[in-house]
Write a structure and sequence with these properties.
2 domains, Oxidized Rhodanese, domain 1, alpha/beta, two-stranded antiparallel sheet
């Protein structure tokens, strides 16, 4: 009986946390800034504007055309290998010094007259440790940079919408 009660309490707590996000503030306290969908990120630490955020459908439609941006994944390599935006290049996990150095090395091979769209996809964009440093680094290097709109994660915001995916 005691085991069943404890199990019920734990299950209930997990359900509440999963449903309402125990580690997140209530939904009504989220940022109204359209350039970032996270309550944890203040407007002052987001280096892009809403004009710098590009919709997945827009990028997916342009893939394979002469107007297509260069898409660069700036998150964990294991995620890139599991599946990434079709045609994307791996730029390094930009949340670390090593990853930023790798991104800079990759960037040097890219033309500066083409738009670069970056994404990570590991977590909500506003919580991502990789997007901000990648965006700032590429801007400092003189590139035209956009952020792929992934308010949730790669699976939800790209793959589940049927947009083109490659593995490996």
């Amino acid at each position: 009986m005691l085991t069943r009660t404890i199990f019920g309490l734990v299950f209930g707590l997990i359900t509440v946390c999963t449903t309402f996000g125990c580690d997140r503030p209530p939904a009504d306290s989220k940022s109204e800034n359209p350039s970032d969908n996270s309550a944890s990120a203040s407007a002052s630490d987001v280096p892009w504007t809403s004009a710098d955020v590009v919709a997945g459908a827009t990028v997916a439609k342009e893939l394979g055309t002469p107007e297509a941006p260069i898409v660069v994944h700036v998150g964990p390599e294991v995620l890139f290998k599991r599946g990434h935006v079709a045609g994307a290049r791996y730029g390094g996990e930009a949340g670390s010094d090593e990853g930023l150095a790798q991104l800079e090395s990759v960037a040097k091979t890219l033309p500066k007259d083409r738009e670069i769209v970056i994404y990570c996809g590991c977590c909500p964009r506003g919580d991502c440790p990789n997007i901000r440093p990648a965006f700032s680094k590429l801007k400092a290097l003189g590139y035209r940079v956009k952020v792929l709109d992934m308010p949730t994660n790669f699976r939800t915001d790209w793959q589940n919408k049927g947009f083109p995916v490659e593995k490996g």
